[in-house]
Structures are given as structure tokens and as C-alpha cells.
Automatic annotation (TrEMBL):
Top enzyme class: hydrolase
Entries under InterPro entries matching the protein: His_Pase_superF_clade-1, His_PPase_superfam, SixA
GO MF annotation terms: protein histidine phosphatase activity
Key words, A-Z: Hydrolase
GO CC, one annotated term: cytoplasm
EC number of the protein: 3.1.3.-
SUPFAM superfamilies: Phosphoglycerate mutase-like
Record flagged with keyword Cell inner membrane: no
Protein's recorded name: Phosphohistidine phosphatase SixA
Organism, as annotated: Pseudomonas graminis
Length: 152
């Protein structure tokens, strides 16, 4: 299983609700720079948080890659999502190569849990940072962090 974890691009600081914050122009540029690192990768599914900025990020990546399948919106990829639950949910996709589009603090703690088996060793993830993990199964402490790319 190959899993790419992408934090959304820079978002506007305020909206009526946090879930409604949209990407800024800079955020869209950041996402496209990260998407370039996914070119040629064997992605089979894009899973995204329902928050607007994550949906916009996922759609930009989908278009940049020419990915024809629809984005799968899942409620367990929100900023305050449970990393243990994410790993459980990923089990259903263990035969696929997936991109997760989400938020901090979830992405950092998820990577820490997947690689180190601990929520205490979170991976720093800036806006539009992209992490690449591999494993046979999505297990706490059982995944290997292959690469992390931060947008400059």
C-alpha cells in the first residue's frame, strides 16, 4: 500500500465557519507545486476532508494529474479527526494507492502514529506539505515514511 498525505494549501484566515475557509491564491499555487510531485505516481483514489479548503486542494490535484475518478469525501479527515480511526478506515483501501487530503493537527499526528506508533511524535507539516508512506497494511508503527516534501 502506498499512501500520500497532503495538507491543504494556505487558506483565508477567516470565514463564517472554519469548515468554509477557502484557499488563497498563494494556497492554490502551493497545491499545484505539490501536485507536480504526484505526476506519474500510481494513484488509485483521492480521499478528502469535507472542509472547503481540502476539497479545493483535492480538486486542484485531481485536475493537475488528469485523474478521472471522483474525489471521495470522508468525514474522518477533518482537523480534529482521530488518527487511530483514520488507520482503521484506511484498511478498506489497503489494496490501493491513495492520496489523503486533510489538515493539521490530524496529518502530523497520523504520520507519527503510522510510523512511530505514537501520537507524541507528530510530523511537522506546513501548508501543502506532501508525505509519502508505504506499508503492507495501515498499522500503527508499521508504516515507513519514505519522503516528505515541503513547499518553499
Amino acid at each position: 500500500m502506498k499512501v500520500w498525505i497532503l495538507r491543504h494549501g494556505e487558506a483565508k484566515p477567516q470565514a463564517r465557519m472554519d469548515a468554509e475557509r477557502e484557499l488563497t491564491a498563494k494556497g492554490r499555487e502551493e497545491v499545484l507545486r505539490s501536485a507536480a510531485h504526484l505526476m506519474g505516481q500510481p494513484l488509485q483514489r483521492i480521499l478528502a476532508s469535507p472542509y472547503v479548503r481540502a476539497q479545493q486542494t483535492a480538486e486542484l490535484v485531481r485536475q493537475a494529474l488528469g485523474f478521472t475518478d471522483a474525489i471521495v469525501t470522508v468525514p474522518w479527515l477533518t482537523p480534529d479527526g482521530n488518527p487511530h480511526k483514520v488507520l482503521e478506515q484506511l484498511d478498506a483501501y489497503s489494496a490501493e494507492n491513495v492520496l489523503l487530503v486533510s489538515h493539521q493537527p490530524l496529518v502530523g499526528t497520523l504520520i507519527g502514529l503510522a510510523v512511530h506508533g505514537s501520537l507524541q511524535q507528530a510530523q511537522p507539516m506546513h501548508t501543502a506539505s506532501l508525505a509519502y508512506l508505504e506499508a503492507d497494511l495501515p498499522l500503527a508503527g508499521g508504516m515507513q515514511l519514505v519522503d516528505v516534501r515541503h513547499v518553499e
